[in-house]
Amino acid sequence: MSDMTKMVRHFRQILLWPMQLTPIREDALIQKHWELLQATNSGNPWRELVDEFTGDPRQFQERHYSEFVTFLPYVQRFLYGEGKRASSDVHEASAIRVFRRDDIAKVRMVFPGPNAPPATFTVAHVDLYFFYDIDVAILVFEIYADELPLSQVQNSLFRFGRCYPTYWEPDGHGGHCPKHVEWLSSEGTVLAVSDYDHREKYLSFVCRHRSLSLASHWEFLLEPLVLHHSEKAGQIRYRQIEYHLMPVMAYLTLDDPGALTRGEFARVGLAAAPGRSDTLPFSERYLSDFEDRYCYDRYWNGQGMNPAGTRFMCTGRVFTMVGEAGEPAFEDRKTNLEQFRHEYFLMFLIPHFHKATLLMLTNRLVEAMNQLDLTKPDSVRQFRQVIRQTLGIFLRFTHRYWSHQISDHGQVKELYRMVSEHLGTGRLYNELRSELEDMSQYLDSDALRRQGETMVRLTVVATVGLIGVATTGVLGMNLFALGEEPMMMRIVYFLLVLIPVVAVTLYTVLKARRLSDFLEALAEEHRSPKEKLAALLAVWKTKHGRDS
Fold first, then answer.
1. Burial class of residue 110, CB neighbours in 10 A (0-12, 13-18, 19+)
2. pLDDT band at 299, cuts 50/70/90?
3. Cα–Cα distance between 154 and 170 in angstroms, integer?
4. What is the pLDDT of residues 213-245, one digit of tens each?
5. Does 180 have pLDDT greater than 70?
6. Domain residues of the chain, as ranges?
7. Dihedrals φ, ψ of 147, to 5°?
8. How many other β-carbons are positioned within 10 Å of the β-carbon of residue 353?
9. Tens digits of per-residue pLDDT, 411-462?
């Protein structure tokens, strides 16, 4: 089969775009960005999506049931919430809030190349996922098309999910990006277009803000959310959290998937640049372990076999499923496509959410360190507060969301392990936990040091105060018969005693550290009287640097 005749009968592409949300209120422990999105009515295209578990049970389909039973119980609670308990009428809501916009019906793309025709894809849905107690949102954008040449599929996988260009070609269009992207309404109206070729926009933005700008059509898609460094007004602001390449899922069906060459499998599996079928996207040495490292061939019979079966490929950022057109995966129960759009989608979403959360918390630690000024008490106090808040979020994330295993179904379990290992979420988790433990230990030791210094001061004050106590005790023996004096005279005597006592106490606190050194020297029997006298005189010596 030649390159020109290799047609993809059905193609699905799901982009996931994780982003960090900036705090709405600095004093709030838990930021609920979705509440602002709900309250934004003027021109807001996003509407909250009601899940299947809160609707009419008669509308609950077997597909929803199959999705639910795929996951382990603690993952089910994270994804779907929990129903009524026997002893309570309270529902525990899901930790995920999903918003959807329906105004974008199609996307039209023009890829680089001589006389390249535009490719039009239907938009299945545009969703925005929020997570309780985590300042992370994930945009999910799903498109599909039928009867596409394999080259256009490769172009879409390679070029579509790019937030901004990393360089510009000699003809001016963004490197590795589509030449042109348009969002279309159901009536065919153009809602937004890309601006990858506006080189000066991206250069000036980085120069001014030391942050990256986004292509205009992606900015339009997220409105009313606005980029953190943008001049646009908006209460919900987001920041880039990863590289400009969005994680992507791809689903391809062909009449004969076994006819694909090794190079074509590598291109769709790695979302690499299009090329000839008899060539590899990278060197032979680099791809020597491609099948062992990236392919999951539990149901793949091999190239040239009939039927070839279904092949999964996973790099962490890319998850690709290639199968035979019209061939159900499990006969009457469900099809490959249903499983791809639901079970495999959640299996792919969870580790990317884990990674985004860990990167977000790491960014917070970096920002806290950058803003720390040890010479300013307010800065140190703010630093301690941020570290404790971050540690609290991390602990809650661990108990609510984190898991090394999400399913006991063999296939989902093994694919999830592949995605997580390629993303390195376990390593990121251990690194962040180690950093937080180090900072927590530092804060604890600093608090203990401060408590110790306070106890020293109190001990010194109490020791010196014994003199005053003894003196007042003598006075209490009626050595001076002041009880018969007029009230005014007694007040004068009281003040004559009170003012020196307060002064001595304050002065004692001021010199507490040096007095503590003197008392320690006084208690050491091996020291000579001369050394003890020197320690006493050292209390009033002027020292350069920090005083006691």
1. middle
2. confident
3. 23
4. 999 999 999 999 999 888 888 888 999 888 888
5. yes
6. 16-51+94-245, 256-324, 456-540
7. 55, 65
8. 23
9. 899 999 999 999 999 999 999 999 888 887 777 777 677 666 667 666 766 6
d(CA 422, CA 455): 52
Residue found under tokens 């001049």: 231
Find, among 103, 364, 150, the residue nearest to 260 by Cα: 150
Looking at residue 359, its amino acid is: L
Residue 486: strand, helix, or coil: coil
Q: How far is CA 123 from CA 141, 178, 249, in A?
A: 8, 17, 15
- Calculate ∠ Cα 146-50-73, nearest 5°: 95
Nearest-angstrom CA–CA distance, 222 and 284: 40
Amino acid occupying residue 131: F
SS3 229: coil
Q: Evaluate whether 493 touches 482 at the Cβ level (below 8 Å).
A: yes
Closest of 216, 212, 192 to residue 202, by C-alpha: 212
Location of structure tokens 């809602």: 191
Annotate 453-500 with DSSP letters as a single string: HHHHHHHHHHHHHHHHHHHHHHHTTTSS--TTS-HHHHHHHHHHHHHH
CA dist., res. 358 & res. 398, Å (int)? 10
Listed in sequence order, the residues at least 6 apart from 330 whose beta carbon sits closer than 8 Å to its beta carbon are none
pLDDT in tens, 133-147: 899 999 999 999 999
Tokens of 52: 């299947």
Reading the block at residue 168, the tokens are: 């510009």
Burial per residue of 208-223, b for 16 or more beta-carbon CB atoms within 10 angstroms, e otherwise: eeeebbbbbbbbebbb
